[in-house]
């Protein structure tokens, strides 16, 4: 894993929570855009399979085991990518735990479980890579928030919504403090997306009602969210900073 690999690609990204779903879509979009991609997840077997699906040779995509709650794990992932491709240009904090449960039924330990991955994980990633990008004098961080963090959620648990609202606030803090060092930090706040995880979490009849309430009358495209992450991570995106990019079909307009 620490052996330097020759690659014709000049930029490298680390995507967390990339074994499936939106994370895998984000990793795929970066790979198509010409990045070396480090896909990371707590599910090592799953994320290595996702990496092989992008590049069976391992030249431009690798899977990494990463528990986003742990600083040392983030540092190890960073170091592995630096050793392999010479540097890292962007981080996408996407790792997430989603549990649907009424607020009065959420146990404090379950609340901590969700917040520790979603919010602590984003904080740790921003901090570890903020230090690294500061040394380099340039970097891009994209955090995956949610409409639930803006409106309290409609089909998610309070712990999920609270963690996503916290990600939005963290994005602004890191964006302000890191901007003088050539680093931008932005968030994307998707509404309901057309993902297997969404269909598994929300009963079909309830999901139909949610779709009916979306002004555009359909679920969002994970690929479009992924392409937006690529856009925000580009070298040209230096003036986009501290923003929350809404992709919600018109559910929240401001």
TrEMBL record:
A Pfam cross-reference name: adh_short_C2
Keyword annotations: Oxidoreductase
Domain Ketoreductase: 11-191
Secretion signal span: none
This protein's record includes keyword Oxidoreductase: yes
Keyword Oxidoreductase applies: yes
Database matches in PANTHER family: 3-OXOACYL-[ACYL-CARRIER-PROTEIN] REDUCTASE, SHORT-CHAIN DEHYDROGENASES/REDUCTASES FAMILY MEMBER
Name under which the protein is recorded: SDR family oxidoreductase
Species this protein is from: Novosphingobium decolorationis
